[in-house]
Amino acid sequence: MSDVDRAFSGSIPKLYETHLVPLIFEPYATDLKTRVGSMNVSRILEVAAGTGVVTRALAAVANEGASLVATDLNQAMLDEAAAVGTERPVQWLRADAMALPFPDNEFDVVVCQFGVMFFPDKSRAFSEARRVLQPGGTFIFNVWDRISENEFADTVTEALAEVFPRAPPRFLARTPHGYYERQLIQRDLAAGGFTQSPDIVTVAARSQAKSPDVPAVAYCQGTPLRNEIEARGASRLGEATGRAAAAVAQRFGMYAVDGKIQAHIVTVKK
After folding, report:
1. 3-state secondary structure string, 143-193?
2. Do the Cβ atoms of 129 and 102 come closer than 8 Å?
3. How much is the pLDDT for 70?
4. Which of 101, 108, 110, 191 has the fewest C-beta atoms under 10 angstroms from its C-beta?
5. Taking the complete model, does pTM exceed 0.85, yes or no?
6. Average of pLDDT values for 80-107?
7. pLDDT score recorded for residue 61
């Protein structure tokens, strides 16, 4: 993974929040909210919080008096999250998931939505999550399944391969959809010090938008895929986005579109 895969800057945070969050992240934020809400926890840490879709969900369900700390490596994403706001006070903190600035045994639960795939050293990040959990605490995160199980992302990736045949942008397949093998996840958790076997469940949902333009803009301009496109020609972002929208329209229709999304939810105890 290159640094460009982790660069959420410029207009990306705003487009991520307005386009990508409702398109693919909200169903799984609701899923995590339900799972964490069933736990009796008072100290919650979220890592790789992005623009705060899970943070907002957790703030709505956490027990009265519970503390919620939300971290991300990208300050621009945290700024967008803080601007959107939450129902209750949240501590926003820029922090690296591989070097968390908290003492041992500090939290009841550590939550991460679709951030693990971006960690350069996953077992190290898992070790840090384990370190800051109290004994018996829970680490819960989700990761996208393979790209073929996520129809809009797959369609956009194939469309961009036609725009840039000599060097197809592969960010979506390489990073967001590149960490789906259960055995690898289990091995990395064990390398991070988790001795209990994780519970891994696969959850499918539907991604819906009012037009094919929404997923095209969401992926091409609201993720680091934008950096990869512009590296091939700064003036070609509009062309690439238009080609992606046309491909989505051809596969799913010219008006409201509906596609499958699928992810693994991983839960493991310290």
Report:
1. EECCHHHCHHHHHHHHHHHHHCCCCCCCHHHHCCCCCCCHHHHHHHHHHCC
2. no
3. 98
4. 101
5. yes
6. 96
7. 82
Which of 18, 44, 47, 42 shows the shortest CA–CA distance to 223?
18
User: What does the pLDDT read at residue 2?
Assistant: 55
Three-class SS state of 92: strand
Instruction: State how beta strands 199-209 and 257-269 pair.
Output: antiparallel
| Percent of the chain as helix, strand, coil, to the nearest 5 | 45, 20, 30
Residue 234: predicted pLDDT: 85
* CB-neighbour burial class of residue 124 (10 A; exposed 0-12, middle 13-18, buried 19+): middle
Place of tokens 């070609």: 236
What fold characterizes domain 3-269? Rossmann fold (3.40.50)
Mean pLDDT (whole number) for 195-217: 98
pLDDT tens profile 39-78: 989 999 999 999 999 999 999 887 778 899 999 999 999 9
- Is residue 129 within 8 Å of 138, Cβ to Cβ? no
Task: Quickly tell me which residue has 């310290």 as its tokens.
Answer: 270
Domain coordinates in residue numbering, the chain: 3-269
